[in-house]
Known about the structure:
The protein is α/β, with parallel strands linked by helices and 159 residues long. The chain has helices at residues 15-25, 47-57, 73-79, 92-108, 128-136, 147-158; strands at residues 3-8, 30-36, 64-69, 84-89, 113-118.
Amino acid sequence: xxxxxxxxxxxxxxxxxxxxxxxxxxxxxxxxxxxxxxxxxxxxxxxxxxxxxxxxxxxxxxxxxxxxxxxxxxxxxxxxxxxxxxxxxxxxxxxxxxxxxxxxxxxxxxxxxxxxxxxxxxxxxxxxxxxxxxxxxxxxxxxxxxxxxxxxxxxxxxx
Length: 159
Ligand code: PNS
């Protein structure tokens, strides 16, 4: 069984992420979307909320599972019989850091392969941070994130 992991912060999941999840689910028997517990960031959503949103927006893809991890991705890969790490590439600016991570992950775990998928053109400018920024100043984010995410973001600001 070919298992891939698609790791990230997903704060929140965007339509760019969802595009990579859908496309990678056609290439692997199982894709685990793994949310990083990152103590050094102050996220908008908790890990549980992020996982819940990811479950909702991937409920129609049977071979996608949602999980979370902390520590090194290379260790998570080893513990879960994962063969590949899936990453999305948007622009040249992503490349340098992604290359560094791919090479470090291979050093830590020589059996793992990082697979890069090019973003769909319509999402090439999208990031979770830019979505949050636009939302904060009441800009329209429809079509950039799933509707469930918009609802969850509205609930957050009304708290
Ligand atoms: O969505 P993001 O924030 O761009 O995702 C980054 C992520 C989670 C993929 C990366 O930070 C990561 O893998 N972190 C886990 C810690 C780790 O393994 N660091 C060394 C990577 S070489």
